[in-house]
Sequence to fold (532 residues):
Amino acid sequence: AEWRAAVAGAEAKLKSRGLLLNVRQDASASSTPTSLRIGLCGTELVAGRYDRRCASSGARSTSEASTIRCAVGAAEPTYVHAAVAEGLVTLEYLPCLEAWGILAELRTASYCDGDDMQNRVGSARQSCGLAGVWEGPQLLYVCRSGSPLGRWLPVLGDFPAPVVTEWVDTSMPMVSVDALLSAEISCCIFGALLDLSSADWRGFVRMKREINVCDGYLFTVRGLMTGVSAGQIVTRIADVWGVARAARAVSRRWRAAVWEQQGAWNRALKRLLQVEAARRSSMVRVARPEEALLLVAPSPSRLRDPLEIINDPVFNRCAWGASLVFVRLEAKRMEEDEPTVPGPVSKALAALAPIFIGYVRRLLDDAPVTWASGKLHPMIHREESGEMNWYCNLTNQVPESLRSRAQLLCRCIFGGGVQLLTFAGKPLLASHMSSEGLLRPANVRLCGLDQSWSSTKYWGSDEDKRSNISLNTLQANMSFVFSAPTLGGRALRLKFAALCVPFVYSQEDALRPPLSETHPDFYRMLQRQAAA
Fold:
C-alpha cells in the first residue's frame, strides 16, 4: 500500500511540473537478461552491475518482506547489485504494482551514500505524502514495461531516472601460453588493450570548504581536480596509439588484429569527446577527431585563459559538448526585502519555478538532468557588480555521474556569441516557439536574450599532493529574459550555465612538454589527417 501511495504521489508531483512522460509501455515485450547494467542515474548508489538471482535458486534477501516478495514473484527474476552487500540494492519485479522496481534498504546509514541520501529520501517521502520515519526497503524507481530495459520513473530516487542496459562482459578468457598466437586470442588481447569504446575520461572541479587559519579561521572554497584534464585525455589517446603502432610491426597476424580494433576508433573518439550523438543531425557540424585532439591539446595561452579557444577557427565552426552546471530563475531583490525573510519577489519565484521546470525540460528535449524534486526555496545571491538577486535553482546538485558529461551542445556564433542546442541540432531559442504554451499559467513573455562565454579559475586544495594547482574551465552562459507582471516590473531571467567539455585544464598540463615533443609521430599524423 505504501508503494502504491509513493508511486501515485510521485506521478502527481511530476505531472504538476511537466516532468511526467508516458511511462506505461507495452508489457508483452519481455526480456530478462542474465546481468544488467545501470550507468547513468541520479542516485549514485544504484549505478553498477546487477546479477540475476531467482527465488528458486535459494537466494535470500535481508528482510522478511523481501523474502515474501521473491516468493510471490517467483516467475520473475531478482537482480542483485554486485558491488553492494547482498540484497541491499535490488532490481526486481513487484507483483503488487505490476511493474519493475529498484529497491534499497536504507534503515541504516552505513549501507547508503551517507546521511545526505537518507535526507533526500525522507524529503521525497514527505512530498509524496508518506511518513518521514520508515523501516524496510524503499522504492527508488519504477518501470511499468514488461522488461527492466524499458523507461524508468523516479519515485523516491533523484533525477535522472536510470538507463538500464544488458551487461556486456569484456573480460579476457583464461588461455594457455600455446594458444596466445592464434588469431582469435590475438583479437581478444588487442580488444582489451586498444578498445576505447568503454573509456569514460572526464575531468571536473569538485568544490571543498577549508579553514584558513591565517585569516582568522575563515572558510575558503577551493577546487579539487577530479578525473582527468584535457591534457591527460590527449596524452592517454596518444599512448594507446603508440602501443597500436608498435604492435602492428610485429607480425601480419598482430597487424590484422590491431586494424580490426582501430577501425572502431573514429566512433570511439567521438564518444570520448562527447559529440557522437550530434552526428545524427545535419544541422550542426562537430569536429573530426583529429581536429578536436589538436584543439584540445593544451597550450600556454589556453592555460592562462581558456577564452583564447573561442578565437580558433576550428572551435568557431564546430559544436561541442556542454554539461549543465545549473538552471535557475533569477530576479532583482527589492530594497525593502530582508535576506532571510521571504518577500514578494521570492514568493513569486517559488510559484513560477514548478511551471518553468516543465518548460525547460521541453527546451532540452528531455536530456538527463537532475531536476529539483523537493520543495523549491529561493535564495539570495550577490553578483560581482554588488547587486543582490533572488534566485531559485530548478536543478539539484549535479552528481558525479553527470559532471562534465554532455547533455546538449554549444557553439560560438556572431563573433563571440553563444548558442545552446539539443543533440538533434535544434537551438533552445527555436524550441521556445513550440514550448511557449507551457508558460501560459505563469503569464510571462520573452523579451530578450543574453549570452556570453566565461572562464573560471580555481585554486586547488592540499589533497592528492596538488597544493595550489590552478584549474581553468570554459563555460557557456545563456539567459532568457522575461517580463513578469507578478514581479512588479522586474525582469525575470532564466539562466543556463554549461561547462564546455572537455576543456578542463589543470596547472599540471602547463608542466608537460608539448604534444609535438612527447609524441611527435602521433602529432604529425593528426596534422596530416586534419589537413586532408
